[in-house]
Amino acid sequence: MSIGAHKSGTTWLYQQLDAHPDFWMPPVKELHYFDQLSRVQHSAPPRFRDERDLHFFENLNALSAKTHVDLENYGLLFEPKASLLSGDISPNYSTLSSKLIRQIVGYFPHLKVIFLARDPVQRFWSHLSMEVYYRQIKPFDATNIDEVHRNLLRRGMHLRSYPSTVVARWKWYIHPDRFRVYFFDDLQRNPTELRRSILDFLGADPDKPIDELRANYNSWGGMEKLPLTSQVRSHLAHFFKKELKACAARLGGPAKAWPARYGF
Which of 144, 162, 220, 227 has the greatest number of beta carbons closer than 10 A? Predict the structure, then answer.
């Protein structure tokens, strides 16, 4: 399961796993089962390569009609994978409650979880740009600090903007050997090595050839970000100052350099 809170990162991860011969990935990239019972409108139509995809999607629709989380039948969704590896990549799982996390980990004791962390300032701005680009929110003056701050305080945005808290909540319930934090910084700097590390953690063979066409497809490649002025950047940095330092201390790795980007 991937609980990374950034769309382009989880899109990349889905593409890499979907293209690997050790995996069979669901025909829907983000299931959103545990946060919205899969009652979401997907940005792309489901993939239908064979009967396994059709079987999965039909069962997912039936499952989403229920009024509660059904862990047994959620697990049965993945029967088409047979002996292959599979998973659920949904960024919003970073917002799940402690109670639900405990239930999931208790029911699936061998579950492996990945969190793809990103600098909170960059993550927020990229997410906000995506919402405007796809008209999920009304366009606004991105140079107006008051309007930007109003978006900072939205509950959905707030819940996904604190990586140190997300990691702490999940690590409380899952064995350390089954939880890994990776960084968007590494995806930008060395995606090949990041891919190898993730595949190795999940139990796949990093040296097996993959379908390059599927692995290189980038559905977010054409998205334009909102212009980020120095004044707005400074405001965001000060808003997230405490979190930037918490990430540096608790997550380590590339997060150690995040505060220095903003002079902290």
Answer: 162
